[in-house]
């Protein structure tokens, strides 16, 4: 195993899966469905303005007011 594969999981098929380090991403609670959602790269510039976890929740919020 090379030094770049430290912490990797080796399957019997020979495939290597590298560990994901997404545990420390910021989270918010969606005001519509009350579920937590995590930061996404596509929200990188607008994270402060993101309120809803999905387009569906955003559309539902328009009907609640």
Give the structure's gist in a few sentences.
With 65 residues, the chain is of the alpha+beta class.
Name the descriptors.
15% strand; 15% helix; 65 residues; 4 strands; two-stranded antiparallel sheet; elongated; alpha+beta
Describe the protein.
The chain has one helix spanning 55-64; strands spanning 9-10, 16-17, 27-29, 36-38. The protein is α+β, with helices and mostly antiparallel strands. It has a domain at 22-65. It has a two-stranded antiparallel ribbon with strand order 1-2. The chain has a two-stranded antiparallel ribbon with strand order 3-4.
Structural class: alpha+beta
What does the overall shape look like?
elongated
How many beta-strand segments?
A: 4
Q: Whole-number radius of gyration?
A: 18 Å
Quaternary structure type: single chain
Helix content: 10-25%
pLDDT < 50 stretches:
none
Question: What is the number of helices?
Answer: 1
Distance between the termini: 58 Å
Strand count, sense and closure of the main sheet? 2 strands, antiparallel
Give the SSE order as H and E letters: EEEEH
Strand content bin: 15-25%
Instruction: Look at the structure and give the mean pLDDT.
Output: 81
Strand order of the largest sheet: 1-2
